[in-house]
Design a protein that fits this description.
Oligomer: heterodimer
Shape of chain B: globular
Number of helices of chain B: 12
CATH superfamily of the largest domain in chain A: Periplasmic binding protein-like II
Helix content of chain B: 55-70%
Strand content of chain B: 5-15%
Helix content of chain A: 25-40%
CATH architecture of the largest domain in chain A: 3-Layer(aba) Sandwich
Number of strands of chain B: 8
Strand order of the largest sheet of chain B: 1-2-3-8
Mean pLDDT of chain A: 89
Shape of chain A: globular
Structural class of chain B: alpha+beta
Chain lengths: 342, 400
């Protein structure tokens, strides 16, 4: 009997402590990351140009650079990151449950994700749109011709919904074939299970390169949706959201101010007040987001500005060769426009 | 213990507190109540904690999302479904797809499993060895790999829709599936259905009459011919009488796919084949062990009575083997049902793919969606167990 009572009491105290711990989740994400000494960043399982490991196992890409920039701003080091590869289906649950600190995985900013899902988008690092890829041998030149076609699509994406919307509004019949992971989608497309494969156009270009003979596949001209892609954080931690948002803004502002990885040290001598504020020589902008004054300097020194990141990962300097287009700076006729640092 | 020292008539004796403390019955009740309370409190605090955390993170909760428009399409639907219908409807579509593959899979796996199990015990060396090779290979491959092998293996070998393989009866086979002519029933179908029902009723009647005669006289009249006559002839007569109310919609070549007709998608075929072949290997071993569990004296006795091999198997061995077979067989049925959730990997729209996949992602209500999905599998498994337990009780050896 005595053992029983003692056992029950021990169990009770253990459980009440457990419940207490689970309830108290008030520490800031920045403190958690600093204490851990590592940023946990959710990325794509493998999408060349955006996030994919290279032959040495190092993660590379436009989305990966956002993670590296955040790490640079916090730790002055781009290697203190644990990359967590996630499928489209897993990504939000991983962020909601705290498995990752930030999700940088070509994720479309939509209203429901930004509100009801408890997530918060911190900016747009790639303006994209959904398109279709078909085999050249089918002689299709427009998506409107795809009546009765089988179309491969990855689950857990806005793609799935846009596809349904597009074909419904154009009153075209189609046959969706839905897979969870990209490799299976591609294997099915390759095996002839589908006539077309649909996803964001940037991905289509990236994937086309991996499909043996790229010239056998064409990307149709129709863009059927707006897909603003950007990093995502959890709601409820404004400081952390600011860090991610201003990391991206700093990279875009730096491109506008022509501050590059190569010239950032000389730029410290610049008289331009905008550059001086960016590099933390004037004002206390770093402190306002809980970082050191040279936070943006570290980003530029270790990662580079937005244009450099774009160029080496997906742009002219990469195998993908995607034109800047909508992703050019606003003054060059694009959409990339960052609020000023002041 | 104070038990032995209690007076013989305790009704009149007042008991002190220590009597209750040391009374095993009272003590047991109190402890059980305490454990039950702890359990309730533990589960309650988990639920409360989850709700509080969801609220703190601004994640929508509740089950209202089920009434919202789904907005996505599903490739295989057993009931009418369009992307303007609700998530609840999509759930139903997924559930039915899961049930379809589970029920057909269980049926086929049982047949294949029994065949292979008996074959492994065959006196024919070649047959027994082939069965052994089948079992040892297939049950040692992870089911997911098996599905990939079947799915992509089949896809790679099938022709494209433009040069479909023509099968008899205006059916076609290509990478998009197996196309059949779709039957379109016209007026007067009820007469045909009536004939079918009457035929079935007649067969049941015949069976019971034959059985009674067998029990009374020991003679087993053959019912095969009249039964076949009833079940084929009656509906046929009704069909002709109703003026052949049946037309077919044939699949015809469209620009990309064949149009019209009924189509069985390659995902379904691959999933069904994968699950059936995999589970059948386990069932075969269960069947073998069941048959071996019947003492060989039983066969010898049956043979001595003049029964031939088929009769020995059917009337003596299998009924006794079933007692051993059914409990582990239930496990295999449950496994097959649960393994059907691997469908998500090869694009078959089952419950996990549609509901715990697409719906979860569109609504972002992971807790609710996973809860519903787990409850469904729990319910399916419990129902299967219940049925098999009932069946087991029926075939259990009645000892006199």
């Amino acid at each position: 009997m005595r053992y029983w009572v003692a056992g029950c009491l021990a169990l009770l105290t253990a459980m009440s402590q457990l419940a207490g711990q689970a309830g108290a989740q008030t520490t800031s994400t920045l403190d958690t990351v600093k204490a851990r000494g590592q940023l946990q960043c959710g990325v794509n399982t493998g999408l060349a140009g955006f996030s994919a490991p290279d032959d040495a196992g190092t993660w590379k890409g436009l989305d990966v650079d956002v993670c590296r920039a955040i790490s640079a701003a916090i730790f002055k080091d781009t290697s203190k990151i644990k990359f967590v590869p996630l499928t489209a289906k897993e990504r939000f649950t991983a962020l909601q449950s705290g498995e990752i600190d930030v999700l940088s995985r070509n994720t479309t900013w939509t209203m429901s994700r930004d509100t009801a899902a408890g997530l918060s988008f911190a900016g747009i690092n790639y303006y994209d749109g959904q398109g279709f890829m078909v085999k050249k041998s089918l002689d299709v030149v427009s998506a409107k011709e795809l009546s009765g076609a089988s179309i491969c699509v990855q689950t857990g994406t806005t793609t799935e919904l846009n596809l349904a919307d597009y074909f419904r509004s154009n009153k075209i019949e189609y046959d969706p074939v839905v897979f969870e992971k990209l490799p299976e989608v591609l294997a099915a497309y390759n095996a002839g299970r589908c006539d077309a494969f649909t996803t964001d156009v940037s991905q289509l270009y990236s994937i086309r390169l991996t499909l043996g003979n790229a010239a056998d596949h064409i990307v149709l001209p129709e863009i059927i949706s707006k897909e603003p892609l950007g990093p995502v954080v959890r709601q409820g931690d404004a400081q952390w959201g600011n860090i991610v948002r201003w990391t991206l803004n700093a990279m875009i502002n730096a491109e506008e101010l022509a501050v590059t990885q190569a010239n950032v040290d000389q730029m410290k001598n610049s008289k331009n007040p905008e550059i001086r504020r960016l590099l933390g020589l004037e004002g206390e902008y770093g402190k306002a987001v809980g970082l050191d004054a040279d936070w943006a300097y570290q980003i530029l020194k270790l990662v580079g500005n937005y244009g450099e990141s774009f160029d080496r990962n997906v742009g002219a300097g990469s195998p993908l060769g995607i034109a800047r287009g909508q992703n050019a700076l606003w003054k060059d006729g694009g959409l990339q426009y960052a609020p000023p640092i002041r | 213990m104070k038990g032995p020292s209690k007076p013989p008539s305790p009704a009149k004796v007042s008991r002190s507190l220590s009597d209750y403390v040391y009374d095993p019955k009272t003590r047991g009740l109190v402890l059980q109540a305490l454990v039950a309370l702890l359990l309730v409190w533990f589960v309650g605090s988990i639920i409360e904690n989850t709700i509080r955390n969801l609220e703190a993170q601004g994640i929508a909760s509740g089950f209202d999302f089920l009434d919202n428009t789904a907005g996505f399409d599903i490739s295989q639907t057993l009931i009418a479904y369009t992307n303007t219908m609700t998530y609840a409807r999509a759930f139903l579509v997924g559930l039915l797809n899961t049930l379809l593959v589970a029920v057909v899979g269980i049926f086929l796996a049982t047949i294949v499993g029994f065949g292979i199990g008996i074959a492994r015990l065959s006196g024919n060396w070649l047959v027994a060895t082939l069965a052994s090779v089948y079992i040892e290979t297939l049950r040692n491959i992870p089911p997911l790999l098996m599905l990939f092998a079947v799915y992509f293996g089949v896809l790679k070998t099938l022709p494209s829709p433009r040069d479909s393989l023509e099968l008899p009866l205006s059916s076609y086979l290509n990478t998009r599936g197996l196309y059949f002519p779709a039957p379109i029933w016209g007026d007067g179908t009820w007469l045909f259905l009536l004939g079918l029902v009457a035929g079935l009723g007649g067969v049941v009647l015949l069976y019971f009459r034959a059985r009674r005669k067998f029990i009374l006289t020991g003679q087993a009249p053959s019912v095969a011919v009249p039964a076949a006559g009833l079940i084929i002839g009656l509906p046929l007569v009704a069909f002709v009488a109703a003026g052949s109310p049946l037309a077919f919609e044939y699949p015809v070549a469209g620009r990309f796919n064949l149009k019209g007709g009924l189509v069985v998608q390659p995902e379904f075929i691959a999933l069904l084949a994968g699950l059936t072949l995999y589970t059948a290997a386990f069932i075969a071993e269960i069947v073998r062990s069941g048959i071996l569990a019947v003492h060989k004296g039983q066969r010898e006795a049956a043979a001595a009575l003049g029964l031939h091999q088929g009769q020995i198997m059917r009337l003596v061995v299998i009924p006794q083997a079933l007692r051993v077979i059914i409990p582990p067989l239930t496990n295999q049925y449950l496994n097959l049902t649960k393994n059907s959730s691997l469908a998500v990997a090869i694009g078959y729209p089952d419950l996990v793919s549609v509901f715990a996949g697409t719906v979860l992602n569109q609504t972002n209500q992971a807790v609710e969606v996973i809860l519903i999905t787990m409850s469904v599998y729990l319910l399916l498994s419990l129902l299967t167990s219940l049925f098999m337990n009932w069946f087991n009780a029926r075939v259990a050896l009645v000892e006199r």
